[in-house]
Amino acid sequence: MAAPGDAPSEGMLWGGRFTGGIDPLMHQYNASISYDSRLFKEDILGSIAFARANAKSGIISNDDFVEIERGLHEVLKEWEGGHFVIKSNDEDIHTANERRLGEIIGKNIAGKLHTGRSRNEQVVCDMRMWLRERIREIDSQLVALVKVITGRAESEIDYLMPGYTHLQRAQPIRFSQWLMSFGFAFMNDVERLRECLKRVNKSPLGCGALAGNVFNIDREMMAKELGFDDILWNSMNAVSDRDFVTEFLQWGSLFMQHISRWAEDLIIYSTQEFGFIYIADAYSTGSSLMPQKHNPDGLELLRGKAGRAFGHMSGFMMTQKGLPSTYNKDLQESWEPMLDHVKTISDSIQIANGILSTLTIRPERMLAALDPFMLATDVAERLTKLGVPFRETHHIAGRCVAKSEELGIPMNELTLEQLKAIDSRFPDDIKEIFKYESSVEAKSARGGTSRSSILEQIKVLRAMLG
Fold first, then answer.
1. Cross-referenced PROSITE patterns, in alphabetical order (predicted)?
2. Rounded to whole angstroms, how far apart are CA atoms 172 and 197?
């Protein structure tokens, strides 16, 4: 193990109080530049806004501000052009940018950039700005997925399939009804994400380390320049609050739960036993041993990534649970879950969109999977319309199921005489009930699986999308 003192604290933003060096491993353990460097743009824009506010309040001169702004734009160009060189003492993006600014415009002027500002407010400002833009990107990607769902639901509305409870065939539905069930779930996710954005998009800049800013800085002006909707109104809360990260992680965990369940259905439907759909080769793999295999790896990874997303959320919540108030270094642990969560969610939505856009429907297999037993409820409902109490009709339909099982024939092959022997109140046209299309079309109340109801659902969902 390296001895303390091998890595100097000179050059660190906090180094003035320290006379000895820092353990190299501690330097590495403490540093966040390996991942927070991707927030270079947010950090530079926040620094420009802060310097502008300091110039307005007279803490730095206008000439100094002009030079700081010029230098920061030079730093930004280096990052964007891939030319920025990270040095060993650049422990985070703030240190790196300020160090480079000093090299460009001189340390004397660059040293005024941080006047009245703490990294405690700076880091969370960068995080909020970065996450805000990623949320908007994810929103757009999720809306695109819902549009694919509504498009396929409309174009494939004539395909019938079994609907399942307990993974047992229950009642006939339209394939579009299944699609739309997830369309509305994902639309709820869109709405929740937009609510989350409201709490992300608030500015902590101008709160200092925890007690506030002594130079009467214009926080509202900075917030407006940086695109925030509002400021955070308590300085202690502002520098320590990571609820916006936790809420986003919670949102992502719930969304990925929906994606996982959607993927699980499609995995089942793609098996040879079901054969309802075929997953495009672009989202499948084969076997290194068995050449006949066509594995739905894209869907399985979506299902697996749901656990990863939940892990981000639960891990960070445990980090926070015992922290004292205001800023603690533990909060650095919010970075990597947030960054990885964004990538996991964004990639997953795009993969899901690709899978859904390219999968092939096999309506003949769906239709073949329908079973007359699935119309037992329709039999009961037909008698109910004739005035027989439903609890009684339920038992009558159950005896019809039992009779067909006893005879070893499908329920629709029971003769009218056999049905009337079970209950004399069966009408002469009861055999007409054994039609899947009629069963589906009978579910015409709003939200049901009839053609008109699904078309109404599509219209409602598209209106929600705006």
1. FUMARATE_LYASES
2. 40
